[in-house]
Structures are given as C-alpha cells and as structure tokens.
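User: hey, got a sec? need Enoyl-CoA hydratase folded
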Amino acid sequence: MTSPVLWEEENGFVTLRLNRAARCNALTGELLEALEEVLDRAANAPPKGVILTGVGPHFSTGGDVAAFAAAVERGEGRAEATRVVGALHRVIVALLQLPAPVMVELRGATTGGSVGLVLASDMVAMHAAAFLQPFYSVVGFAPDGGWTALMPERIGSGPAAAALMLNRRIRADEARALGLATELGDDPSAITARWRATLDGHRAGAMATAKALIWDAPRLARVRAGLDAEQAAFEARIEDEETKLGMRDFLGERSSA
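Assistant: Yep! Here you go:
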C-alpha cells in the first residue's frame, strides 16, 4: 500500500510529500498520523531542513468533507473529528517545535485546515497562481488548523475574521503582502532549492536556537490553548444539522461541477 506521506532525503534535507493526489491531498486521519510519525522521526535526528509539499497540482484542500460526511452518517462524526483535528493540531505543534527550518511549497489550492501547515512553517514558497481559502462558513465547520489560534497574530484579527466570514480567497500576491508567503514564483521547488543552498552554509544549532526562542514556552502554550478551543468547537459542530446541510450542499456542488 502506498504511503499517504512520502519521505525523500537528499544532502541532509528531507522532503515530505502529501500523497493523496486523487483527492487533492485532502487531510484524513491516516495521512495526518503518517505525517506526525515522519515529523517525529525528523525531530529525533534533525535534518538541515524540511520541505513540505504535495503530489499533484494542489498542496491540500484541507479536511476531507466526504470522509467527514460518511462518518456522520455512520454516527461516528465526533470520533472522526477528534481523530482528524487532533492529529492536525499535533502536526502543527510538531512543525513549530521542529529544531530545523521548515519550508513549504504551495501550488494550486490550500484550503481549510491545511492552511495550518503553512502557518506553522518558517518559509513559504508560493506559486503565483496559488491561493488560500477557509471554506468554513460555506461547509459549516468550525475553524481548525490555527485559523483562529495563529492567523489573527499573523495578519490581524480584522482581516482574519473577514476571511473566515466572507470565505475570502487569499491569492498569492495578497499572501505575500500579508506575510503569509515568503516568495512567489512559477516554480516553488526552484525557490526552496535556493533556500536549501543558503541554509546549507548556515549553523544548524544557531537556526534551531532562533526558532526555539521565537516559539518559546509561553507562546506555544497560547497556541495550544487556541488549537484546543478550535478542536472542541469543531467536535461540537460536526453533527449539527446546519453542518450536515452544509456538507451535503458542498459535496453536491462538487459532484455536479
């Protein structure tokens, strides 16, 4: 069986590829638990840097709405929410604490909870045609992945709220202006290759120390508290009638597209 996350190592750098291209790398418990496992492996023997990317034209379309809808139909919606959102939030904290630079390559869509992987990265290489978008107000889910625990700190509470309420699409140029993307280009892999060349000449311990000081214990505690609140809200809403209707409408639109 093909792994949902691929590990590639070259010259001391590790590339992690989300490997559900047929589903636009939508996040499932299996994928996130596999990502958690490889990040634990990286933390135990830190590479020079980690590159996070996706197989196919999209980075990730966030939580798998079809999988959530099926779980709700089985009477297991809350359990599925606990598994998926809990794993996503553990991955986010693992990325923040990883004692090595984390770079992410964004192509196509990055939506819903997968934006949390971007917020937890140190450098973001974004294709000029890529975009970020929440979709929570459309589907009916509560925000997860740091949309309330991390995004307001990055772009301000007003812009974060507007993005969530209006389901605003944040295109690459705006993401760069907001500080959500480090650099734009037609080939995100070429951008991270340049970054790797730079990082290769830097002192790994100094970079790890800088990251640990940025994400110190008090700041991590605030993030964890925010992520815990997001998870509790997601679990509370997953079997709500409004959310059920939202999932049906969303999946109906996708199947008729």
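Quick note: The domain at 5-187+204-208+217-256 is CATH 3.90.226.10 (2-enoyl-CoA Hydratase; Chain A, domain 1). Let me know if you need anything else on Enoyl-CoA hydratase.
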